[in-house]
Please model this.
Amino acid sequence: MSSIRRRDNGQWRARYRDDTGREHARHFARKVDAQRWLDETTASVVTGTYVDPKAGKTTVREYAVQWQAAQVWRTKTAKRVETDLRVHILPALGDRAVSSVRPSDVQGLVKGLCTTLAASSVKVTYSTLRSMFKAAVDDRVIASSPCVRVKLPSSTTKTLTIPAVGTVLAIGEQLPARWRAVVYVAAGLGLRPGEVFGLEVADVDFLRRTVRVERQLDDRGQLVPLKTEASYRTVPLPDVVAVELSRHLEHHRREGPVFVGHDGQPVKRNTFSKAWRRAAGDLRLHDLRHVYASALIQAGESVKTVQRRLGHSSAAMTLDVYSHLWPDSDERSRAAIDSYLGATADTVRTLGI
Model:
């Protein structure tokens, strides 16, 4: 419902009710301006793109609290987002009205972050801000997001640490006996650290020579779902890993988690980390996952196979990390063209065409 009336002072009062029934009004010097505003606003209500002018006055801090409370995140993600907001975003924009934030403000925030954070960390923080403003648009708090055409810093290519096989085996010998097989599971199955400690005896099928990856152990020592659907997978069980797991289970476990602490409870990541650093120094347990990927690539496995084995959500992700490990194909390209064109050329010369 909408209307335009002329007031005693000569102003034109345009009013309407939004989709929640709340009345809004504005005053104009000319009737044509009042009608234009009313037509545009009414159209936005009808098409579902209407934004309450008062909604955008909510501060970024207030909206951030609402947004966080409504999300369904893994514990690690929730903690990261909370840190991004508390440390980087809210000190700069928290007291601003959501509707007042402009792309230039966001660009300024990004530039400031570049002075203290690595490029990858800046991008992660920006993704948090972008997600929050996208939600504000979806909630019709603002009509459009200020996170547009923002220039982000370029990331330097990370050099993968791929330890030699001898180094991997030596680390295993330095670990406590109850964790010695960890290096074989990480390097021989390509599991992430959380997946290693989330592995249960029932997941290992020695008959079919496969291992199911079904869960992970988080930093709090809780068994939680895997990160993505692609992370749920079944990987082949190589003989060398099967032998080490058999020895481990014979002496340490019969059921439940494959790896536990000295008290028989799920592994405390801090406790394991101390033992790992004593044995491996600066090398990370996650680096053994790169050993697995490297071995598959050297054996000639395709990108899609490596993707599935690692539990990556896309082949692009696999290539982002491991593309440089695939062997150079220049010689194969030359041989393919020589074989294809060369045979044809010989036939043409023989026939005298």
Notes: The chain has three domains: 2-50, 57-138, 165-325. The first strand starts at residue 2 and ends at 6. The chain has a mean pLDDT of 87.
